[in-house]
Amino acid sequence: MKKKIIIGVTICAVLSMGIIPASYVYATGNNWSNVIYPEVYIEDINVGGKQFGEAEELIQKKYGESLLNKKIQIEVNDNIYTLDYSKIEARYNIGEVVNKALSYGKQGNMIQKYKLIKGEEKKEFKLNFEYNSTPIDELIDRIEQQANKDPQNAKIFITKGDIKITPEIDGVKLQRNKLKGAILENINGELSKEGTKIKASLEIIKPEINKEKLASINSPISSFSTSFFTSSANRINNIDLATKAINGTVLMPGESFSFNEAVGERTRVRGYKEAGVIIGDRIESGLGGGICQVSSTLYNTMLNANIKADERRNHSLPLAYIGKGLDATVDWGNIDLKFTNTLNTPIYIEGYIENKNVYFNIYSSKTLTKRTYEMVTDISTIQPTIKYIDDATRLEGEKIVTKSATSGYKVKVYRKTFEGGKLINTELISNDYYTPVNGEVIRGIKKPL
């Protein structure tokens, strides 16, 4: 009530002076109620006297449409990627600002409105630049997929002594954060700049293994082979699959090898077949039978290269194809043959079968051949027991062997190192135990008539 009294007094005072008729003041304010007051600017455009739609169209034509024509070009090697402002929905808050301009002064009293309409005071409103950053990330994703290249290690191939090395290839990685930062830094609403060019930063990724490192693999340093002359077709098939899986393995100094990881699970889908396997004190048919000959042959090749096993176990029974204490059994998910390249140079494992023999060769630096190695075994025999079962229905002296007895063994394996023909070291490699198989015999006790 007090405010209305003050306004009324002010108006009466002005009118009593005969300066401006009240009706004129009121009519002037009323005439500008739906348009923007004079001397109101949005950026550099005078929108005074314009209705909302007129002002919006005027600002949109200069600032909205021109903005959508801008673009940023991104150079990645020989490729150019374009980020259009239309894709990022670049825009000014034109509607919001025009609404502010239209509302300017409309809340004042009659005299205040009149002064703004008739006055020469300039009022400016600024536009805010906005955009959607999601398309930027999507473009960078696409650039990254096309620009990024994994490094490729140098590769070595050896076939019966013929050594070939293909050089390494550098990898490329887009420096994503730097590119995004450069894009965001250059996105703006300046109409004087139609576009910007950015050169993406790329990081060169060097491969872990280069040709120079592999060049030190220049000579065989150990070899070993075993025969499977009497093996079945299924067993030969399994030996061939496992040998091929290992052939070509390269181990850098400090890298480890796992037979199970290299060969993989022995399944029918992967081509493995049923063949004889040792289970306890007997031989049964099992999927992948025969691959222990592969692991045992590789184990001896490894020993002759002056490498120790990290994990290795002997069979429960001695084997015909290899000496006692020199075998290495494997079983998927249970028993493995593992070793680490403890040499100062990389090694290459070559494996192949020929004339019903499985061969393994380890290649490395020729400097390692100045030493040679010999495996020596110390064997103690453990005699089995024989259980006799008397049979009164059979004649005295008649015997039937129901379970054959085989001796057990305690075996120590030593590796002797020679240099220049002289023994320079002897070390214990393994201490194995082969369980004796106790026999059973049925014997007759019936007296002859």
UniProtKB/TrEMBL annotation:
InterPro entries (alphabetical): G5_dom, Glycopeptide_resist_protein, Vancomycin_resist_VanW, YoaR-like_PG-bd
Keyword tags: Signal
Domain of life from the UniProt record: Bacteria
PROSITE patterns in UniProt: G5
Signal peptide: 1-27
Domain G5: 368-447
Pfam families referenced in this protein's UniProt entry, alphabetically: G5 (PF07501), PG_binding_4 (PF12229), VanW (PF04294)
Full protein name: VanW family protein
Source organism of the structure: Clostridium malenominatum
